[in-house]
Amino acid sequence: MTPRERFGEHRRRRRGRRGQRRAVFLLPNLITSTGLMLGFWSITLSIRGEFEKAALAIVLAMVCDMLDGRVARATHSQSRFGFEFDSLSDLTAFGLAPALLMYNWTLLPLGPRGWLIAGLFALCAALRLARFNARADDPTTKHFQGIASTFAGGMVAATVWFMGWLEIAPPFPRPLGIAITSFFALLALLMVSTIPYPSPKALKIEGRRGYPALVALVVFVVVVLLNHEPMLFGLGIAYLLSGPVVWWLERRKPKPAPAALESELNTESTGDVR
Question: Residue 39: inside a domain, yes or no?
Answer without folding.
Answer: yes
